[in-house]
Amino acid sequence: MSAAGGPARVRLRDRVAASDPGLLRLTAGLRTAGSIALAVAVLALLGTDVTHLVAGALAAMVSTFAIREKQRGQQAVTLALGLPVALASMTLAAALHSRVVAGDLVFVALIFCAVYGRRFGDRGTALGLIGFQIYFVSLFVGASIGELPELFRAVAVAFGCGALVRFVLVPETPTGVLERLREAFRARLAQLLSAQHDLLDAGPEEADRALEQVREGTARLHETALLIQGRLEGGTADERVAALVQRRVADAEIAAERLGLSLLRARGAERVDTLAMHLPGAPIPSGGRQPVKDEATETLRRDLVALRVLVLRPVEQAAGPSVAQLRNRLLGYRDEENLPVASPAVQDVFRAVGEAARAVLGLRIALGGARDETDDSPATARSREELDAEDAVLDAEEETPAEEATGLARPTTRAAVQVAVGSTLAIVGGELLSRDRWYWAVLTCWIVFLNTASTGEILVKGYRRLLGTVLGVLAGIVLAGAVGHNTWTAFALVLLFVFAMFYSAPLSYTAVSFFVTAALGLLYTLLHTYSLSVLVLRIEETALGAACGVIAAAFVLPVQTDRRTNELLATVLERLGDVTRSAVDQLSGEPPKELLDEARELDQALADLRAATKPLTHPVTPLRARRETARYVVALLETCAFHARSLAATAELLPTHPSIAADPRLRRAAGRIEHNLEAISAHVGDEHSTAEIETGPSIASLLGPSAPGVPRYGRITDRVLRHLQRLDEGVTGLARPLGVPVKAPEG
Q1: Cβ atoms 349, 266 nearer than 8 A
Q2: CA–CA distance, 53 with 61 (Å, rounded to integer)
Q3: By three-state DSSP, how is residue 693 classified?
């Protein structure tokens, strides 16, 4: 039983780690629900009535989710500062309880300050959020001056319980989060390898589904890699170690995607490129519907399973003889003489397996894994020497801070003005609907502005909140009737919904709104203010608040979705050009640079663009042609980013890898790519630009003749040329959907 239970637990752990990288959603849900439960329990023991129990529960929730800093010391300071902010906000709300106009003006001012405070980083954001939300809690429970002592006690207990859960019961340290993220990366890499194994044998009917699974696995692996990069600085004490882990994670991601591409080529797909890995729903390329049929296929299946074994082996576990044998065999494929007899396309898969094994070895070493070199083959020893040499030359560079906008051009200032105007409209309209529940409209207006930057994003978020609210009201009607006035059953269900709300937050905002509204229905039941008309009023106030938010975004210092996406697209093109130029310069013989920092900036810019295009790619958008264009452009950019990252990873090997030599001809060959990126950027910035992109012969033909006695190019340079060729094709492909004219070929 124990032997069988061990692997089952490991599989379950890996599945959870892959579905929730770093257990960030699980931790957020447990911490928030735990804070509320503890606060309610303590307040109940102190004899607190139901109204103040509700206030304490809401304050515990606010004190938990508002704080997003990574270091425990910073969290403690912000939590300590948050308590007097909360008490001051509650005092204001109670003092102005009967003074409608003054209370409304103060509420709008508080909203402006809360949004403006985001410019001061995580602490400013947290304190602003606490101030606004506690004011809202005061309105919700009808706080008055006479109740302040009881309310102060409830809030103080809530903050204390939040601190206890955060620092003792459900602790979270940057180092621990990073460790769990690395486990998630390992699990997702293993899942991707399993999907690639299935792609190898998928028949004509299963080919599209198998490719979609590989595509989803590749996207999830990239998502986890970005999460790791975002946590490295805080989770690693040594800056050099952080940079090393970043490099090895990028190497492993690139090697895994390269392996997937080589498998597609081995299936006979004609002119397959990386777009097949990034365009959701795209069918398998022409000719790629038949499974791989080659004498070496059985060996390839075995080696894909062996690679997955290496990935899943715990970092702290030293390699036994059998594992070392697997590792040695796979790394041997990096040497041409060790390749099995097979077609050129299948041999390339074996090479990709060898490169992936090297990336796994490098990641293991970077994470401080147990190092057992007694069974190393010559190929494994060479790989270790290469990795050690790369680590020795690691040198981080300081980044130049970007110039910030000022005045109304600053995003936080613009958003503060917009949400203040929208909230004013929501207060006026909300009070016309209800003198007692008008604050729901203000809350919705506030929320639709959080983490949004364009009118389109606000419109989509408002629609999702309204849909979730309607569904939550229906659930609230059923639950209120089932629970009745059973206080503890209602609180238990509220805790369940709070956990579900935070667990689902990164996945679906509609689900978040559903759980919030269902929980509120139960809270109204506890406060003896529940009725069907109250829940219907919530729908009306939510719709009003969303409409006020959209109106403010559209008419007050508006940022149109087109303008926002164009700005981000220009940034992506600029970052893509930077990575390509730096990689080619280094491959041409210029001094080394910190290429992976530039690659990380490209990935972040692409993630921002992907988020900004969601209003354009939303299923309900009426502009279907525009939706497909946006999806296609983003997929093309992801393709280009992969090839640029691959160039950067290869260039990183140049100073230490004995089999790679600089080739000055690459600088000339890549000139067309740079020109075309600049032309597209010019057109994105000014639709009247006359810049044209250039087309012509293949990148390889632009190298020109080699020096006497020097080979035209070897396998490594051939890989560089392949990435440059695909990058050239991807950049050129952007011209049609973006409407950039193509220069007619000369002659």
Answers
A1: yes
A2: 12
A3: strand
For 24, 349, 484, 497, 498, the CA distances from 505, given in Å and listed in that order, are 11, 39, 29, 12, 10
Cα dist from 46 to 50, 90, 354, whole Å: 12, 21, 65
pLDDT higher than 60, residue 49: yes
Q: What one-character-per-residue DSSP string does 492-547 give?
A: HHHHHHHHHHHHHTTT-HHHHHHHHHHHHHHHHHHTT---HHHHHHHHHHHHHHHH
**Is 142 exposed, middle or buried, given 0-12, 13-18 or 19+ CB atoms closer than 10 A?**
middle
Angstrom distance (rounded) from CA 165 to CA 159: 10
For residue 712, give the amino acid letter. R
Strand partners, 693: 742
The verdict on 606 and 493 lying in the same domain is: no
Q: Which of 651, 578, 561 is nearest to 613 (CA)?
A: 561
User: Which of 56-70, 77-91, 105-119, 709-723 has the highest mean predicted lDDT (pLDDT)?
Assistant: 77-91
**Residues 240 and 320 reside in one and the same domain:** yes
Same domain, 232 and 273: yes
Could you report the per-residue pLDDT of 639-675, keeping only the tens digit for each? 888 889 888 888 877 766 655 667 777 887 788 899 8
CB-CB neighbours of 120 under 10 Å: 13
The two three-digit tokens of residue 167, written as one number: 């620092």
Considering only CA atoms, which of 741, 734, 744 is closest in space to residue 688?
A: 741
pLDDT for the residue 658: 57
Cα separation, 719 vs 325, whole angstroms? 28
Domain that holds residue 270: 174-281+294-376
173's tokens? 């340290």
Q: 127 in a domain, yes or no?
A: yes
> What CATH number has the domain bearing residue 731?
1.20.58
Model confidence at 395: pLDDT above 50? no
Evaluate whether residue 321 is within a structural domain: yes
Indicate whether 160 and 185 sit together in one domain. no
pLDDT in tens, 128-150: 999 999 999 999 888 999 999 99
Tally of residues, the chain: 747
Q: Specify the number of domains making up the chain.
A: 4
Among the candidates 349, 376, 403, a domain finishes at 376
727 in the same domain as 674: yes
Measured distance CA(4)–CA(267) in Å, rounded: 37
Distance CA 733, CA 689 (A): 18
Q: Is residue 241 part of a domain?
A: yes
User: Are residues 208 and 140 part of one domain?
Assistant: no
Looking at residue 709, its pLDDT comes to 46
Distance between CA 431 and CA 103 in Å, rounded? 13
CA distance 557 to 421: 11
- Asked whether residue 600 is assigned to any structural domain, the reply reads yes
Q: Which residues contact 53 (CB under 8 A, 6 or more apart)?
A: 40, 43, 44, 154, 491, 526
The answer on 179 and 164 residing in a single domain is no
Residues 341 and 459 in one domain: no
230: pLDDT confidence band, cut at 50, 70 and 90? confident
